[in-house]
Amino acid sequence: MTITSGKVPTTTEAAPVPPSDRTAARKAVWAALVGSSLESFDFYVFAYFSAIFAPALFFPDLDPGAALLGSFGVFAVAFLIRPIGAIIFGNIGDRIGRKRTLLITITIMGLATGAIGLLPDFASIGLAAPLLLTVLRLVQGLSLGGEWGGGILIAVEHAEPKRRGLYAALPQLGSPVGTILTGALLLFLTTVIPGDQMLAWGWRIPFLVAFPLLAVSLYLRLAIDETPVFKTLLVTDRRERVPVLSAFRKYPVAIVVAVGAALLGIGSYSLMNTYTVGYGVSVLGFSPSDLFTATLIGSLLQLVTIPLFGAWANRIGSARVVLIGAIGTLVIAFPMYYLLQFATFPILVGTMIVGGILPTLAWAGLGGLMADIFGGPVRYSALSIAYAVAAALSGLVPFATQGLANATDAAWWHPGVVLAILSLITLVSALVAARWKRPVDEVN
Q1: Does 87 map to a domain?
Q2: Residue 17 in domain
Q3: Would 7 be classed as within a structural domain?
């Protein structure tokens, strides 16, 4: 059975678009990768910050549990505002182009992240501190709404069809690269800077690093060409007047499927690299340096597995790669968190490796899955909206898991429940997407 979005394309509606040459395609992938690395770096810096430093710095008048919830709430607002950013920048990306839109989003993201490193804390300006932190986090969220979809399209729409699975996976390397940069930097800082000084001023350094990273990202993105798909839309005058509205009209079912397919890949990172960090310190008794090291090891492994999974997607299809990842994660969800209760460093490292590889299958195949089910004129809008909605839901994962921990007295199985639910939703969505057949370069 073939599943479509409600409109069956005909051969006259499909417009094959020739890919870029290999050199231009590789440049596009590098630009997408560096941009996604900056996005991930900014994300993980704030994730660690919200789990370890923000409660004491910005919510010192609350008890520890409430302060952590407040911190995770600020972390979550960027995800909640992200769909609005997706609507704004997705619509812009389908109207003015992928490249120009990505230059805007990465600039906003880098400036907002660096500004957090300059922000006074609660002791200096009182309630204005968490309010300003929330505002900057909202700005981050708006820019993030248009960043991921554009990065995927810059890579995918330059690639030849038989390599789209790999090219869609390579920008996803930005997540482990961002984790590695963040973890290595924080590990170094916590080693050379005493804990009281880290709380006083050292926490600012990772945020300020966003400024030079932004300069590198802009340099690479200015050097790439617009994608062949968008050039074809311009030449044939087939852009939608309001792409975001057309995306909802043409692809309502596909958007729901894409949201579900994205939940595990995004939500597992929120669970493992945000909630589990705070949980590991406050409940299991690990040191922050142990957690940074374990996360770093797991991320280094992803530098190998993501390209391999992308190459696999070339052979079996991106949706099937996502499906296999969801099944595997569901199987290991509870055993992984049970073993973590023994609180040894080797078990922690093993948890980060196993708990990283299987959801990484879902993460590596996600961009290709989405690009395959949406047409060119609304592809930026559709990808951005679906990913942003999934990210908004995933941003609540640390908050919801902390609430479940409070309700169950931190029972060992409570994070496994969350991971299993994410896996089941993605499993069902990937099953549907695997049966979805559309021309990948349809531009009508």
Answers
A1: yes
A2: no
A3: no
Q: From residue 301, how far is each of 129, 273, 305 by CA, in Å? A: 38, 15, 6
Whichever domain contains 30, its CATH number is: 1.20.1250.20
Is residue 150 situated within a structural domain? yes
The identity of residue 51, as a single letter, is A
Sorted by sequence, the CB contacts under 8 Å of residue 22 that are 6+ apart come out as: none
> Residue 398 carries which side chain, given as an amino acid letter?
P
From residue 384, alpha-carbon distances to 15, 91, 258, 266, 301 in Å are: 23, 9, 10, 14, 28
Count of C-beta atoms within a 10 Å radius of residue 297? 17
Q: Which residues form the domain of 426?
A: 22-434
Cα dihedral sign, 189-193-194-198: negative
215-229: string of b/e by CB count within 10 Å (b at 16+)? eebbebbeebbbbbb
Query: Is 179 in contact with 405 (CB distance < 8 Å)?
Result: no
If one counts the domains in the chain, the total is: 1
Token pair of 411 as six digits: 């029972």
Instruction: Give the number of other Cβ atoms within 10 Å of residue 115's Cβ.
Output: 18
Q: Taken in order 105, 110, 113, 119, is the CA torsion positive or negative? A: negative
pLDDT digits (tens, 9 = 90+) for 333-356: 999 888 878 767 888 788 777 777
Residues in the chain with pLDDT < 50? 1-2, 4-14, 439-441, 444
Alpha-carbon span 115 to 118, nearest angstrom:
5
pTM attached to this predicted model: 0.83
